[in-house]
Amino acid sequence: MGKINRSFKRRLMQEPEAKFRLIVRTRDEPKAYRSLLTRRGIKVKRELGLIKALAIECEASSALALLREGWVVSLEEDREVRALN
Amino acid sequence: MEKIAHSLLRDMKTKPADAQIPVIVKYGKFRKRPLETLPAGTRPSRTFRIIPAVALTTTPKVIESLSRDPGVERVWPDLPVRVCLDVSVPLIGAPQVWEAGYTGKGVKIAILDTGIDPYHPDFAGRIVATADFTGEGPQDRDGHGTHVAGIAAGSGRASKGRYRGLAPEASLYIAKVLGREGAGLMSDVMAGIEWAIEQEVDIMNLSLGGDPPCDGSDALSETCDVAVEKGYVVCVAAGNGGPAPYTIGSPGCAKEVITVGASTDQDEVADFSSRGPTTDGRTKPDILLPGASIISCRAKDTSLGNPVGDNYAELSGSSMATPHASGIAALILQARPELTPAQLKAFLMETALDLGLSPNEQGAGRADVYAVYLEEPPPVTPSPGGEGCLLRLLGLS
Question: Nearest residue on chain A to B315, judged by CA atoms?
Fold first, then answer.
């Protein structure tokens, strides 16, 4: 599997200025990349150490640019979950 | 000795040689005269006709000699049953395990949900820690989390015991990861899991999920799997997308978690309960547990479900089935703290009651805490209710 689901990548490409909530899995400890992302104007919501990931919010174009980074293992949408009653 | 139920063996080892222990002895199908094998002076208090068995009270030595008799198939402890509470809890054998002394005491359950009503009488003195990942504060404004917590660990205090949960003395750790509309983000749930690990809980309950289908490779599913690998029992709802196949969403599709579908009180799979397989072809759910019309705790000033008085409400969903699994896990981990999450899951599945459905509908079947405790599959019997649950569960009444 690549860094991103193909249909999600298409969505990002179709709406380059739209804001997305994402989970970025990182090669090393996620805190190492926090300031790098912040400098690019990407909002870092959470560091998730258990699987080495960051919850971020940014424009689709910024997300697509992240795919070129060697330290980005994968990128996926931070999807909604719901109570199941 | 292998004919003697594990829990009875433990009791026999801790009791004096002249202790009188109540047991149920089952004979082989073709044994014509089971009573002739009883030692002199030992008389059964009850003889059963549906299966060849007797109830009697005797010493550890006699129990051992009975187990050596080739005509004897099995010896169980005849545990006292004083109360059969509402419906789902006795159906899955919890009162028998309570009577054996296991109520979840000392076991830590994390509920990752919409928060909790901290003033509900059924949780008094047992909410150890709370954390809010929604920005709303830990109070339950929706009602879902309070209901779920009540199934896993409510004491039933406000109902004089009627709506007692599975593990009424377990400690509760509340991570609010879903907001007042019952929704949140995967990353909020992942943060809640990390918090639960920091709290060193034993069990995590996730009565939540995303849109199906999934293959278990998403970030939330993998976080759940890592938690299991680190030694935490994680119970996850299968979802309410049934009866179509491929309707299990994340994190129900995670590989290592216990994925719980919903059954009815009549031991049928609930129509709404999500079905497997996962998109990578794995069988799910793992087990079924009751999830239809479950009455449990109601958070103050909420109106979720059908209110049952001021303190309780009736709800349906795989959300309600999942805390039955978490409560079972609490009872079993109190009795056998050495079990790993994988062993516990295996026991749950091996001892589940086969409902005769396909694995992607029922998993291994409807789980039964008493069967896990006894480490043997439960017999196929009608649903119990009222007095005499134990005998009905064993098929002896």
Answer: A85
Q: Which of the listed CATH numbers 3.40.1360.10, 3.30.499.10, 3.30.70.80, 3.60.15.10 matches domain A6-75? A: 3.30.70.80
| Mean pLDDT of the B314-322 span | 96
- ipTM of the complex as predicted: 0.94
Nearest chain B Cα distance for residue A44, angstroms: 12
CB B187 to CB A84 under 8 A?
no
Which residues are registered as beta bridge partners of B287? B260
- Inspect the interface and report whether the beta carbons of A83 and B220 lie closer than 8 Å: no
- Residue A54 to residue A48: CA distance in whole angstroms: 6
Catalytically active residues of B are 113, 144, 319
Backbone φ/ψ region at B395: left (φ over 0), alpha (ψ -120 to 50), beta: left
| A55 touching chain B per CB within 8 A | yes
Domain that holds residue B13: 6-77
Considering only A40-49, A68-77, B12-21, B316-325, which range has the smallest mean pLDDT? Answer: B12-21
- Give A24→chain B minimum CA distance, Å: 9
Q: What percent of chain B is predicted at pLDDT more than 70?
A: 88
Which two tokens mark B39?
Answer: 């030692």
Does the beta-carbon distance from A51 to B219 stay under 8 Å? yes
> For the purposes of burial, counting CB atoms within 10 Å of the CB of A10, is it exposed (0-12), middle (13-18) or buried (19 or more)?
exposed
Verify that B93 and B207 share a domain, yes or no: yes
The CATH number assigned to the domain holding B193 equals 3.40.50.200
User: Nearest CB to A84: which of B223, B227, B318?
Assistant: B318
